[in-house]
Every structure is written in structure tokens, then in C-alpha cells.
From TrEMBL:
Residues 1-22 form the signal peptide. InterPro entries: DsrEFH-like. Keywords: Signal. It comes from the Bacteria. The lineage of its organism: Bacteria, Pseudomonadati, Bacteroidota, Bacteroidia, Marinilabiliales. Gene3D superfamilies: DsrEFH-like. This is Uncharacterized protein.
Length: 147
């Protein structure tokens, strides 16, 4: 019985190995091109590097179609960073004004990290609760990611 189990295991391993393959460049490109021209996308971001990546992604999407609706919600310590970091403020302002992206900040994070709201970019409206806002976008059909 033990020998039959070993033979069966080897046979299944060999046949299963033939089915595994890496995605081809063509398959990757096809997946990346499946973004809808009127798509609705949103990200909740909590770190500066994620905000930067989200903005780059949003700019890329909007360059392909102005009809794409792209939201970002800043939460956590990122809200405090935005209020104090001039580079981030500039990046946010440019993303909204030049590229038509929507960037909001979480009111709970403003309270938790005692952020002076007047230091936030004027382009960033405040939502009382970033998670509730994201759930609302999901209910409206948005594809959402939390980073």
C-alpha cells in the first residue's frame, strides 16, 4: 500500500507540474488593458509611499481616459504627514488640480493625530470616517483597495 501511495504521489506531482506556468508578457498586458475607460477606482492609503504610488496609478489611468473616476482616501499618520510635508502637499495639489484625481482625508485621523486642519491642502476635503467613505464607494460600484 505504501508503494502505491508513493507512485500515486509522484504521478500526480509530474502531471501537476505540467499545468503550472508563468504568465506571459502577452497575458500580463491583456490584464493591464482590462481597465475600463469609465471605471471607478478607489484606494485607502496610510503611508506616504502608497499615496505616491496611488497618485502615479491614478495619473496613468486618467491619461488613458478622462472618464475614469479615481479616489484616494488618506488615513492614519499619513494625514499628519500631508499637513507638515511641503513635498506631499505639492504632490496632492498637482494630482487634484492638474490630473483630476480626488484625494480626501479621514476626519478620524485628524482627531486621533491632532492635525491642524488648516495645514492640509485646500484640495483635500475631509470625510468624517475614511472607512465609511470607502464602503460607500463600494456600494456605488467602485473597485477598492486598502494599502
Amino acid at each position: 500500500m505504501k508503494i502505491y501511495s508513493i507512485i500515486l504521489f509522484i504521478a500526480l506531482s509530474i502531471s501537476g507540474a505540467n499545468m503550472v506556468h508563468a504568465q506571459t508578457a502577452e497575458e500580463i498586458k491583456k490584464t493591464e488593458q482590462s481597465i475600463k475607460k469609465n471605471g471607478q477606482y478607489a484606494l485607502l492609503v496610510m503611508k506616504a509611499q502608497h499615496l505616491k504610488a496611488a497618485i502615479k496609478t491614478g495619473v496613468d489611468f486618467k491619461s488613458k481616459s478622462a472618464k475614469i473616476d479615481f479616489h484616494m482616501v488618506a488615513c492614519g499618520e499619513l494625514v499628519k504627514q500631508i499637513s507638515t510635508d511641503q513635498t506631499l502637499k505639492h504632490l496632492v495639489g498637482e494630482a487634484v488640480n492638474k490630473h483630476g484625481l480626488k484625494i480626501l482625508v479621514c476626519g478620524l485621523s485628524i482627531e486621533q493625530f491632532e492635525v491642524d486642519q488648516t495645514l492640509l491642502p485646500e484640495e483635500t476635503p475631509v470625510t468624517a470616517n475614511g472607512l465609511v467613505y470607502l464602503f460607500g464607494l463600494q456600494e456605488q460600484g467602485f473597485k477598492t483597495v486598502i494599502l
